[in-house]
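Before the break, one more example. Copy the sequence into your notebook; we will annotate it together after we see the structure.
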Amino acid sequence: MAETEATEFDSLMNKFYDRIEKDEKFFNYYNVDVDDAVSIAHQRAKNYLMESLDELSLVGGLEVDFSDYDEKTEIINFDLYRREVKLIVEMMFLAYMKRDESLLHAMEINFTPSDLSVFSPANERTSYRNFIKELQDEVDIEIDNYKSRDRKTNELKQVINYSLYGEE
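Here is what the structure looks like once it is written out:
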């Protein structure tokens, strides 16, 4: 990205929209006109973005403070690199997908024992929980990888010299 010393929320939210473009539930709302639907989708994406930035700001050892953003002007007060954009968008996607986890519990409550003998949602719940865990693991690996590299050059911060460790 260009050296603008700031990143607009919209650039990240547009990447997030591309990530979830096939999910009609995110963009469609009952009894809401198109302008209001766009506004709702924008606010939801903004919330996922700020949640992701706040989560990154809790990670120690990073070169920048991801809490350095302005919610009102929708600006991150430093320029993001492509790797950082990708990481943040994946974190936004994870936050979005985690929202449906609460529906799994509601599904458990709404079925009676006789319903469960005909249709058991256990496999769907397990699959979804496994999917969320896999997404979380991927994000955690990306964060660790990001932490270990210089944000500008993408070079490893520390390289282990294995020749110093001879076999005895």
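The radius of gyration is 20 Å. The beta strands are 7-8, 69-70, 75-76. Try to locate both features in your own notes.
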